Amino acid sequence: MFLVNSDPARNRLYITLIGYLEAAERQEATKQIMAEAAKLEAGFDVVTDIRGLHATNKEGVKDLLRLRAALKLRGVGHIVRVVKIPLSAIQMQRVSEEAGFESEQVPTLDAANRRLDELKAQAKVQD
Fold first, then answer.
1. pLDDT digits (tens, 9 = 90+) for 36-68
2. Sorting pLDDT into bands at 50, 70 and 90, what band is 90?
3. Which of 80, 82, 81, 62 is nearest to 70 (CA)?
4. Which residues are 5's β-sheet partners?
5. Which among 53, 101, 54 is positioned nearest to 80, based on CA atoms?
6. What is the 3-state secondary structure (H, E, C) of 70-125?
7. What's the CA gap between 113 and 45, in Å, rounded?
8. Is 33 helix (H, G, I), strand (E, B) or coil?
9. Strand, coil or helix: 42
10. CATH no. of 2-126
11. What is the pLDDT of residue 47?
């Protein structure tokens, strides 16, 4: 299962992935993620909640890499991942690294939002 929504006021994309996603569901999730990303400005941040996600197979990893590349082309900014299952967290970290992204891991959605707010504030100070 997956849930996707965007918050244009915060310029933030929220993705929740739960369980084991089969190929058709991964493809539908990708379409919805890109549709929501299109509503945001370049530099948008992403919160990916994978607390309930199970590790995927090789095809799933390839799909994730394609999605990360597409988000990079859309101008993604910071990525913060909400994690619980260690194997899923490790797999997603590897995908991010292979795709050339830096991401942080936090234990809750509130912590993810706080961290992104901190990063935004730091960026304003540096400008």
1. 999 999 999 999 998 888 878 889 888 888 898
2. confident
3. 62
4. 14
5. 101
6. HHHHHCCCCEEEECCCHHHHHHHHHHHHHCCCCEEEECCHHHHHHHHHHHHHHHHH
7. 10
8. helix
9. coil
10. 3.30.750.24
11. 96
Count of C-beta atoms within a 10 Å radius of residue 74: 17
Is-above-0.70 flag for pTM? yes
CB 42 within 8 A of CB 104: no
Domain boundaries along the sequence of the chain: 2-126
Q: How far apart are CA 9 and CA 65, in angstroms?
A: 27
Quick check: 46 and 71 in contact, CB under 8 A? yes
**CB neighbour list of residue 54: distance below 8 Å, 6 or more residues apart:** 19, 20, 85, 88
Query: With the CA atoms of 4, 80, 86 and 34 taken in that order, what torsion angle do they form, in degrees rounded to the nearest 10?
Result: 30
